[in-house]
Amino acid sequence: MIKGSEAVETVKETNVRTLKGTIILNVIVAFIGYFIFENPIAFIYGIFFGGTIAFLNFRLLYLTLVKAVRMQPHQAQAYAASRYMIRMVITGIVLYVSIKSEQLNTIGTLAGLFSIKLVILKTELFSNRQFFFNIFKRKEDK
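Above: the chain sequence. Below: its structure as tokens.
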């Protein structure tokens, strides 16, 4: 069983690993986009704008969960739902700004917003091979 201080270190390691993976993925996508898009600078700005907001939303989710765990169940549910709405409003504002701004490419912003999700899927889901293979096992084989 993981004790409190060990769990905090594990979460910090996960945050750092996720941030590094997101930066690496965004740099790769920005490099590819540099050769594809007519205005590559707007695409690169969009990638890093979306990626930054995505990571900040991820951090906000972490802070929400840490606080909600210490609440009564009905309070935690209301608190988590309100914070979820705040994160969705932030994402909506980011997309609106990206659409209206000529300095940001909307496709780049969307790629940046989704990059953290891809990194989390890769590091947390696909790193455990047995879990991945269990997804495709038939019920009779289990």
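Residues 4-36 form the longest helix (33 residues).
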